[in-house]
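Narrative of activities, Objective 1.

The group set out to show that a structural description can be obtained from nothing but a protein's sequence at a throughput compatible with the screening campaign. Below is one input-output pair from the validation batch, recorded exactly as produced.
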Amino acid sequence: MTALQNSPFSLTYRMKHIFLSALLGCALLSATPAHGASDAKGNFIYVLGWDNIWYPPTSDNPESVAFYENKKLYETEPGSNIYTGVLEPMRNGDMFFRFTTSLDTPEKDCYSVNNIGPAESADAIAMRAMGASGVYGGVCMLNTTPGRECGSWYLSESSLLSFNNYISPGFRVDLNTNEVYVFSGTHGVAAIADYKGDFSWSNVGNYVTVDGRQFLSPGAHTLTYLRYADEATFGANELPPLLYSGNYTSVPMSEGENPVSISDKWPGGILATASQGYIRFQSTIYAVPESHDYMLMVGEYCDWDVDKAITLDKGNAEGSLFKGVVPAGKFYFVTDASWKNYETRLTYGPGFYYERDTDGNLVMQIRGQADVFDIEAPEGTPFLLDFTKGTVTFESSAAEFHSDYVLTEGIPGAGSLPDVPDNAIYLNGNVDGVVPTTANLPYIYPYLYYREPENQWPFYLPAQNAGYNFITKVGATAADATVAIPEQGSFVLDRTMFDDDGMAVVKMTEAKGADSGYLYLDCKNYGDSNNTGRTYEITFNPADMEAVVYCADFKKPEARDELYIVGTPNGWNIWESEYVIPNKGNGVYSATYEIAADAEFRFFTSLGDWSRGSIGSEYSDFYSEDVTQLPFEGSACWGMGNWKLSGPESGFITFTLTTTDAETWTLKMERAASGVENVPTEACVTVKGGRGCIEIEAPYAAEVTVYDLAGRMAAHREIEEGVTFIPLQAGVYIVNGTKVLVK
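Output recorded for this entry:
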């Protein structure tokens, strides 16, 4: 675990169970076609251009008839003249489409008569975004003129939210008002605050897709979720607790249940929502709960390993006070020992304020999902964590806090917000849906990041199919904002613009209006549509009007001593892996391990960060390439896709990864008879058995692998010159070709 991973500037998460939770909820919130009538003529229309396939819509072509059989939108009820439906998933990409009311048109007129297309006269009309609802709209017309071909609507790649890089487009065609709407059938659920049952498609721009963000003013609210496909409403089975800055809580949703109640204790902020079947809430106000059942301290002293973390002593039965002592190195506090419970586990780091009490002790504000504590104080200095006050007190007048981030002396009352600095700069993205204004500024303060000295502001963010600029002066509205945008206007900063150190410099210029221009990060050509496996650091210097962009993935790779297998063989533990693949020289990495059937895995150049150094089958995360049989040989890439062995049995597999330029990789997997048979032999290395250990003496640094008699790897070490002891359970082992007994 790094400081970056624990800071508010890290907006990346890579946990596998996100995918699982989405799957669990698919049946709950997945949109289905609204069949309000039978398949009689006139009760449905056809979608033309689905997946950019344009079969002539004619009834005398059996292939065409078969193709369009599943490309129908059904009338909501007989005579409504409104047609809706959600089509089967297709690979995410640019989409062109229109509709036809019949397949009975002669082929010469099949793309004109009875076609429903844009009212505008053009080959392709872009759909317009309807606010932050995730819905795109357009004006349509029914063409009845022979020989006059309709135009088509156009949606760019990733306009609709994708699931595992696939989209299920949903359509609503209203021939009464000549309006057409397109939405994600997979994620086609809107969040509506204080819903009063007056849903209207003409007002859909006021709603927010579940994958978006919604600003809620302080006070009580009800939150209802509505499925676009059939306008069914959803609520919560249980009420969420009061929410706190940076901390998530997930609430299972059910059709027809009561709306989610937000109590009058709600301090105001952004509600972030996600995951089908579950609605995730995140407050952005810096408050903390008043008590916890227990509290752990994680830090450098335990190599950021939660399993080795110290549990703090409770200072009272209520769990509002916790006692501990300052460890060696940086640290933070966490409520749950399981990384798998990331949605409910809470972490705490330094807030924005500090002061000295009457005894000279250092008193600091705490906040959720913050950076780590970096305290200069004698190791063992006592501290008191007080959740009723939202502070931690270090009982030493000598205690000092070290941080690159600005802290203000003087702790305000509990639940208060700090004043916004006059020199604040905001990172503005056209994906968030909320722009800082003078009216909402206090409540979106967490989106403010600033750094001194040198007037530089760093932002860490994953690349998305969205652009970013910097708001240097907040206005009364988004249009009044003063922003820094690229000199050339909106453009994509692609991989070729980064130097060997992974840096790119973008000259900026001042403009008016929050959406006047955006810097887009490279995501289309080198990853999935959201590019979730790549993180960028952007530092903006307003004095020079330059944005310096750093991406570790674009840094010229250096030679590595070893690679690591991370996946089901090691329990998806990104922090440690006994499955080490050493560098054999000349760009070849090879090792043999016993692997269970149906194993799923990828490789990493270093451990501790899901978003760094991943070598996989695809750029996209959660994608698994099935290997039906071994031997296997194929390409690998810098990405988050997994390999999955679908073989019928466990066995020893030799993994060989080869690279010529540290950029292009080839993976070869083949069965080995036994791990023992593939044990490397190191000359002049002496191995002796002992009581509870083996003793190894080497005249030079060497690589040592220990197997039991069944061929299972028991240990793997890179030892230094001299004598090394490796603890083992009693038994017989083979160490680099030598059989030894451990008593």
